[in-house]
Fold this sequence. Notes:
The protein has 7 helices and 17 strands. The strands form 3 sheets. An 8-stranded antiparallel beta barrel has the order 10-11-12-13-14-15-16-17. The chain has helices spanning 2-23, 27-31, 40-44, 86-97, 108-126, 234-255, 266-283; strands at 55-58, 63-64, 100-103, 143-165, 168-187, 193-217, 220-231, 286-287, 291-292, 299-313, 321-332, 337-350, 354-368, 375-388, 397-409, 414-425, 441-456. It has 2 domains: 2-105 and 141-288, ABC-type transport auxiliary lipoprotein component (Rossmann fold); 299-456, Porin (Beta Barrel). The chain is elongated and about 120 Å long.
Amino acid sequence: xxxxxxxxxxxxxxxxxxxxxxxxxxxxxxxxxxxxxxxxxxxxxxxxxxxxxxxxxxxxxxxxxxxxxxxxxxxxxxxxxxxxxxxxxxxxxxxxxxxxxxxxxxxxxxxxxxxxxxxxxxxxxxxxxxxxxxxxxxxxxxxxxxxxxxxxxxxxxxxxxxxxxxxxxxxxxxxxxxxxxxxxxxxxxxxxxxxxxxxxxxxxxxxxxxxxxxxxxxxxxxxxxxxxxxxxxxxxxxxxxxxxxxxxxxxxxxxxxxxxxxxxxxxxxxxxxxxxxxxxxxxxxxxxxxxxxxxxxxxxxxxxxxxxxxxxxxxxxxxxxxxxxxxxxxxxxxxxxxxxxxxxxxxxxxxxxxxxxxxxxxxxxxxxxxxxxxxxxxxxxxxxxxxxxxxxxxxxxxxxxxxxxxxxxxxxxxxxxxxxxxxxxxxxxxxxxxxxxxxxxxxxxxxxxxxxxxxxxx
Length: 458
């Protein structure tokens, strides 16, 4: 029997090695240069109306104000967390918007030196004709753009999941960072700050790993591991945030009549401003970096139906997972807490030794960790009783239960739930057998849907 096992493991290793082609592209493909990516906010510039007159702007220094360095597990790391060419990114964004004419100010000294060299050279070879040595005047800026990246927050949201069974398992990890950009327009005639906008962009990182180990023989251990990590480039996130800031600056200027559109595009400007006002209203419902925050998200009342799997922990050594069904009615009496009354029919068994259907009645106090978000973990605990509907002993038996799970609202009225619960009995005869020191209990996992109705929780 050993030969087929070796063949199977060898085939697994070959398959894992083949997957490497997808995770690590050939060197010829990696080494090729390509045009930089276009961000979604960059494409928003195409929706902007045409300006009546382009605005000449100067950018002296748009810089990283966080002072942060990249996190490292290998000691000190002197690489900055934020790209340092922010002025260049901003100037490119201003050009793409078609609303601004950026002029060189970051390295104005180099420009002035070069103009002086040109002027001196022309004077030497122009003879007695001073007009030939003159250069056109430099453009001056009516508006200065100031600001920078003011924060880079790491690990504002992290998570993960994993499972392992008999040496074979996998896991996934998730991390969310956040970068914030401020941009302000300053009038060069009087120094007044005309407009200030700020934008934020989340930076996502995700890793997936799987591994296995197996003892093939007494002194032979086989191990295999594969994984992939996907990190969103910080440069792309910064570019998208700056593009969004320029886009909002244009809309804010149109809104307050700092600059104007051509007469033909007035309707387009009104539509964009209407959408912008809706976006401002939605942003007021956000928890910084963690998605939409909505206090009236969940209703006071809801009804749910779940399909469950139950494993009896009784007096028999053999354990069998059996199905069940449960209905629940929930009343949310505060933002974080609700009372949950559930009735179910659960099948419990121990292979061929015992099997029966039980009715359960539970009253739980439930705590929602993030009730204002679409996704939230929750914890619960309470009291209940259980009775055998088919067995010899149909007495009512009291129990207690506790557990946790997650809830995700796919719409304002419909949500899905996954949960795990541990039911601890106060009797030892659920399986019609009394043995050992511990009372009977069972482990339950389930998934289901619930429907919200009635007024929103306020």
